[in-house]
Design a protein that fits this description.
The complex is a heterodimer of chains A (about 500) and B (about 475).
Chain A: H1 13-31, H2 34-61, E1 67-69, E2 74-76, H3 78-101, H4 118-135, H5 141-159, H6 166-197, H7 202-212, H8 218-234, H9 244-250, H10 253-277, H11 283-306, H12 311-331, H13 335-366, H14 378-381, H15 383-397, H16 403-417, H17 421-447, H18 469-487, H19 489-500
Antiparallel strand pairs in A: 1-2
Helix pairs in contact in A: 1-2, 1-4, 2-3, 2-4, 3-4, 3-10, 3-13, 3-18, 3-19, 4-5, 4-10, 5-6, 6-8, 6-9, 8-10, 9-10, 9-12, 10-12, 10-13, 11-12, 11-17, 12-13, 12-16, 12-17, 13-15, 13-16, 13-18, 13-19, 15-17, 15-18, 16-17, 16-18
Chain B: H1 5-23, H2 28-52, E1 61-69, E2 74-80, H3 82-105, H4 110-129, H5 133-142, H6 144-154, H7 159-188, H8 202-215, H9 225-231, H10 234-259, H11 261-288, H12 292-313, H13 316-347, H14 363-376, H15 383-396, H16 400-425, H17 442-460, H18 463-466, H19 475-480
Antiparallel strand pairs in B: 1-2
Helix pairs in contact in B: 1-2, 1-4, 2-3, 2-4, 3-4, 3-10, 3-13, 3-17, 4-5, 4-6, 4-10, 5-7, 6-7, 7-8, 7-9, 8-10, 9-10, 9-12, 10-12, 10-13, 11-12, 11-16, 12-13, 12-15, 12-16, 13-14, 13-15, 13-17, 14-16, 14-17, 15-16
Chain lengths: ~500, ~475
Amino acid sequence: MIHTPHVDWFAISTILVLLGASAIALLSAVLVPRRARRATAAAVAAAGFAGGIVTSVWIYVDSNPGERVIANGFYRDRWTALAQVIICAIGFVTALISVEHIPSRRRGADPARRDDHIAEYFALLLACAAGMAFFVGSANLIVMFLALEWFSIALYIMCAIDYDLEGSLEAGLKYLIIGAFGSATLLFGMALVYGATGAVGFIEISVKVFDLQIQNDVLLLLGLAMIIAGLAFKASAAPFHMWTPDVYEGAPTPVTAYMSAATKVAALVLTIRLMNVAFNYEAHLWTWVWAGIAVASLVIGNLAALGQRNLKRMLAYSSVAQAGFMLIGVSTATGLGAQGVMYYLVAYSAASVGAFAVIAARERELGEAVTLDNLAGFGWERPFLGLAMWLFVFSFAGLPVGGGFVAKFYVFSAAYAHGWTWLVIVGVAATLVSLYYYLAIVRAMYMRPTEERELGVVAVAGGSPARESLLHGAVAIALVVSVGTLFAVSPLIDVIRHAIYAI
Amino acid sequence: MSSAWTTTVLIWLPIAAAVVIWFLPLTRYATGSLALLVSLVEVGVWIEQASRFDFQKGGLQFEQQHTWIKDLHASYHVGVYGFSLWLVGLTTVAAAAALGYGFWVGRERPRAYFGLMLFLTGVTVGVFYAQDLLLFYAFFEAMLIPLYVLVGVWGGPGRLNATLKLLLYTMTGSLLMLAAVIVYGLKFNTFDLVAGPTSDSRWLFLGFMFAFLIKAPLFPFHGWLPDSYREAPPEVTALLSGVIAKTGTYAMLRIAITKFPEPTHFYRNAIMAIAVATLIYASILAFRAPDFRGVVLYSSMAQAGLITFGLFSGTNLGYAGAVLQMVAHGLVSVALFLIAGTIERRTTSDQFAFLGGMAKGRPGLSTVLMVAGVISLAVPGSVMFAGEFLILAGAYQLGWWWAVLGAVGIVLAAMYMLRLISAVLHGRRGQLVTDEAMDLRPGELALVVPLLGILLALSLWPAAVSGHSFPNDSPAAAVKAGFK
């Protein structure tokens, strides 16, 4: 008989809910007639994510700091639960956007095949979120790697879900190949760490490092470096960002929205835990490494974004730069920094999902990729979406209309409190550069006369824009969170502070 | 304090109204009327507040405080000092006049336009009333957002470059200030402007001053000024020069000078030298400017120099004069830019080469322009004269040569203003001045005349402002005590 550990089913209830919903969505692909399939699968997905939010909140309320369950392989604590709430919320909003925008109606897409794989898509979305919910709670290297592969594979397929479009397939393939390389690096690093310490659990690694006095062991440090590279790859931080623009551009826009927000949440939340728990004796080294990666991301992301005309590519580079801001918080290795990163993730996710949703709406109207040129007049044609985009972009830039302002303030404060005034200066300079391209979006939406634009095709349906009530709902949610994080700072910070005790 | 709510209302009423206007599908007329009504209510609330303000007591009044970012000790802390009360009065009046102008000329896309104007009003009041550094910073930055769109959408042909310059210049300053705000706040564990201690750090002082010098703006930080002022719609330029530029000089008084006494002393001569250089350089530019707006915009810059000059003289007279001058120049520049707008509407240009002889048959226009111009050139007896006299008297206490240098600028003011008046009103009839170019309509007069009326009233009693800005007529002592 195989010895099995005691399983705390409640600790993984979010993951189970998401997986269950995923299974139901998958079943609906064969059991539900084609015309009802989209609605059914979407409803299941929305319900699954809502359920995931409920169970995660429950776990949040009913957990002790840093408690490990299931053979010490999984953290049941508030840090995990909070990240799961965010991931489920992102998933929920993405599901809303996806109903009307998967597959995207770009030129060359075959309308007859529209509903072919919609149920599989929602099943993958749910499975991907489940993987991320698992990833953020992982307490040893094996679980971490499994979860990473789990959600990555789901993402590879989601990127390529518009398989009859060249760009989508290319994006999926690129992500797969480079992603596999990143995972391999991560795995190699884990192997080295295991080789040096003989432990896989985060806490055990730290204990072993202290017991064996191998803080400066070459094998361990090499392993740590490779793990950092693997995680930076997922967070799309420079210099591991080269896949980001291509994949963001090629993937269907709702998938880009999900990926840009949720992957960052998962990667950074886990990074903070892993670094502070497993490698706490190497903090003097990895703080500098992450600071270096942060600076590289800020410089490369911002400078590359300056020259972009394609909006998805621009926001891809902007997400590299945003990762840089968040990594400023990570690199401080302090509670204030972790708090800042978590806050940043909430504000950034809201703005990012919202911005990509708006792009999805415009993409559908045009039937082609959105650029700064064909965005002209959008703000006046679609007042609500224009206003929302205006706000998201300013929130990215850290102007005081959205939570991005408070978030930037927090990570800068953390850097200063850590004694790194130079990093504050770098961040401030990067913010200034970023204004140029963020404002270019506003300029394109409002300040260019509509006649200037050269449209390849007119709106798919012609006439007035499509009624996209679900997309509007998604944008409204993102908008409320974006603005809400500017005003209701203290309540959210309290929630995050409670979560941080876990680490 | 029973009327403390007025502070919050003055800040948030226009912002709330802006949101309402954005989301309610009202007609053009209804939108404009609602916006104008809100701006008049603002003026009313301000009058209510001013009538209850205790000028003898001084100190912070109508105070409100709520937690905002608890763990970093930043809060929503607002309150009113004597001098900020006057500046908010200026803001509400100027905003009402500017909104009225926008309504009168019938701006395109009224919902967006009026919403943004109201939003701008609210956050500007917020800058003057914020008593927490981070809150101040948030409002200071937030002013740029509506401004950017207002100039970029409703501005002239060169608006896109103008907005870019405006934003990049001012944001450079603001972001350095953000770094300074963070350092100050974390060092002293509070962002509160009232409770926060003074600091001797010269770097922090420079971080703040840099932002304020760009906003004011002073030479050599004025690169954004000519484009923005020329390309913006006239009523937005009026707000920019009349009110928003004043946030820069206000913040010098409230933050830089009050919180950093030692660096203020250390850099006094350097900043006064920059201020005087601005005064003279901008006055010369104004004298050479080929257009109406050019003269007024460089005269605004010269006045910013003069106000800074008064503030950094560090004397009782200098402070009082600077506050009086901020209010007076704010009103006069709003009036002048609105008049510039009415002239542009009649002639399609404000280039002097195409103007001239407009006085004939246009008594209304020539009277208001004459009155505004004469006040602006600080003819003895006018409120501007009182302000400049106080500032120069304050500078004199520091050294007679400062006063002499300042006086040069004032002579130049007479030259450029008289040149403007004669170029527009007198001489041969300009190419673009047709018989169809009407005199000011009653609606336009109704916007400009109240502004001039307030200026004339202040001319009769300048001490209404200069004597009621600081408790006990001793600004220097109040500044030293941090307005406590």
